[in-house]
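agent> Task received from the user: take the single chain below, predict its 3D structure, and emit structure tokens. No templates, no multimer pairing.
agent> Plan: (1) validate residues, (2) run structure prediction, (3) serialize to tokens, (4) report one or two observations.
agent> Step 1 OK, no nonstandard residues flagged.
tool_call: predict_structure(input=
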Amino acid sequence: MNVSGPGSTRPFVDRPITDRDAALVAAEAAATEWGLPPPEPWRTGMNAIFRSGDVVMRVGHTSAPPRAALELATFLTAHDVRVPRPHPVAPLTVGDLAVTAWERLEERDVPVQWEEVGAMVARLHSLDPALLPPEYPLADPRDLSWWKFDEMLVDTLADLDPDARAGLGRAVDRNSDWVGFGRGESVVCHGDVHPGNVMMADDGVALLDWDLMCLAPPGWDHAPLLRWHERWGGGAYYEPFAEGYGWSARGDRFTESVAELRLVAATLMRIRDAPTAPEARAEAELRLRYWRGDPDAPPWTAR
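)
tool_result: status=success, residues=303
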């Protein structure tokens, strides 16, 4: 596994699904190959997710052999990190799309135990990176395209009014030192710990979607929840998470910077997607009210 520094790896999935018809064709081919019921579309983002009986199919563009995801899940389960278990079939490649099959977890209608999520993330952070499955990429988050803020601001310039651009630009400038961390001070991070990637299953908390697993300071996995209540609404999840983890990142310079820059990235990505997705334009405008300094800016709604 290459963990040498910036530019060494890409995350497992860093290209979104843009052709939903092709994703459906791939899922249907996999269902036929595996003897499963016809797949039903569930949701589409970086991956297209389908339900097929008691199986969940993930269809996406992977940067490593798709079997590496199955190996990672088995490894994490063995180290007391609850994740969906692979369905016992070999991944299928259809064109440039990889299809993997997973157990379909039944979500319990109970509050998420955020203390346990924090404890699980702490266990993850304690793992030796050298022990992970060798083919699964351990990315450097500085290489994520949507974290290239200067480029993103240029790309969205025509869609930003002066007040919105100024607000976003100030946030980028005051947090520009986030890139200065060294790989030696980093741990294995999930990469995207937020309520949409956490589920209360019958046997407890499960942590979903490991496509952005990376090597970064521990605060990388604290940052999403640090500002969640403020911008996304919902509960104040961070304090119980931090209690379960055994450390609060409030006041930590790196974590505070990443937490705000996640909000910048979430806004710029919606603006970038707006030309082909009307719902993205509406959500982008909602988010821009915050960056203009509107004191009545509502919580953001699309994740």
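agent> Step 4: summary for the user.
The CA atoms of residues 229 and 236 lie 5 Å apart.
agent> Done.
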